[in-house]
Amino acid sequence: MKSNYLSPFVRFLQEDLQLPANSIQLVLRQGLSRDALPMLLWQYGLIDLQQLDRIFDWLETR
C-alpha cells in the first residue's frame, strides 16, 4: 500500500470512526490490498455495517 493512501485512511479510521490504533494495526499487518482492508475490519468485528458504509463512501471520494 502506498503511504499517500494509508496515512489519510488511518487518520479517518482513528478520528472519524474512533477505531483504536491497535485494532487498525491488527488489520494492517495482514498485508492485503487496500481494497480488502474495510472488509477485514468488518469481518474481525472491529466495525459495524454503518461504519463499513462510511468507509466505502470515504474511499469513493479519494
Describe this structure in words.
There is one protein chain. The protein is built from 4 helices and no strands. The protein is an all-alpha fold and 62 residues long. It is 65% helix and 0% strand. The protein has helices spanning 3-15, 21-28, 37-43, 49-60. Helix 3 (37-43) packs antiparallel against helix 4 (49-60). The chain has one domain. The two termini are 15 Å apart.
Envelope shape: globular
Beta-strand percentage range = under 5%
Structural class by secondary-structure content: mainly alpha
Q: How widely separated are the two ends?
A: 15 Å
Order of helices and strands: HHHH
What is the number of helical segments per DSSP (H or I, 4+ residues)? 4
Per DSSP E runs of 2 or more residues, the count of β-strands stands at 0
Largest sheet: none
Give Rg in angstroms: 10 Å
**Overall pLDDT level:** 88
Summarize the amount of helix as a percent range.
Answer: 55-70%
How many structural domains are formed by the residues?
1
Features:
single chain; 62 residues; mainly alpha; globular
Task: Tell me briefly what this model is.
The chain is mainly α and 62 residues long. Helices cover 65% and strands 0% of the residues.
